[in-house]
Amino acid sequence: MKLSIPRACGSWSKSPPVSTTLHKPISFYSSIPSSSPLKPQVPLFLRPPIHSATLSDLQKWHHWAKTLPVPHSDDPPDPTLLRRELKWLLEDALEVHSSVPQMGSHSDDRPIKLRTSLEQLYSVWRQRIEERRPFQYVVGCEHWRDLVLSVQDGVLIPRPETEVFVDLVGDVVTQNGDLTQGLWADLGTGSGAIAIGIGRILGPRGRVIATDLSPVAVSVASFNVQRYSLQKAVVFLDGLRKGKLTYLTGLIEGKPGKVCFWLYGKALLGSQFHPWVFGSASG
């Protein structure tokens, strides 16, 4: 399947040169401990089912949600997508997914265990419809590749087209297995999606340095890294303090509207990048 990156910082170039001499990473500092001081929002599907509502009340909410008017807009949401999102929201909120087919049945006062309150379900769906709040922020997660990543307001939602950067790393590592021992960097890591994807490819011998100027993003990315047990593969560098990275094997840099990828200073996407030395983690 042909991959396209409409918002990347350039067009495809020739296949990257793979060096036979691996640059060894030097020591680095200003790492962020795995326990970030900010507590990220837990995705809805991971919350404990400590709330409850009767099936009848849940049916009333479901009917209200399906019939909530969509404000007039030049670019209205797709009704089919909204119905699908409503089903996903319900599945994430329910302790037992088998309760979903019963939503159209007769009134029933049986208690149903929920991962959020019924009042909150009314609130978040109203935000989705009337305020056009992204669905990923409503449920607190995004499906990216084979990952389910925590996201929240203040953290960019991983875009499907950025999955190609993990594929690129997989390709070059397949050509030269020594690259799994290298030091990679993900600048502007956001939710940590790319860093986690690369960390899984590199295995125990490689390391990914992830940075972000946003403390909220670092907190969310740390949560995602811990959830996939990659604390040894992905290490965070505080973008607000001075740090030093040299002899990088590869670098992925996220900027508003584009993402760039470099391997040994050779740009696959974007302008040529020469020095592999950074005076600070903020660039």
From TrEMBL:
UniProt keyword annotation of Metal-binding present: no
Pfam family, one: PrmA
Coiled-coil region list: none
Keywords on record: Methyltransferase, Transferase
SUPFAM superfamilies: S-adenosyl-L-methionine-dependent methyltransferases
GO biological process, one term: methylation
GO molecular function, one term: methyltransferase activity
Protein name: Release factor glutamine methyltransferase
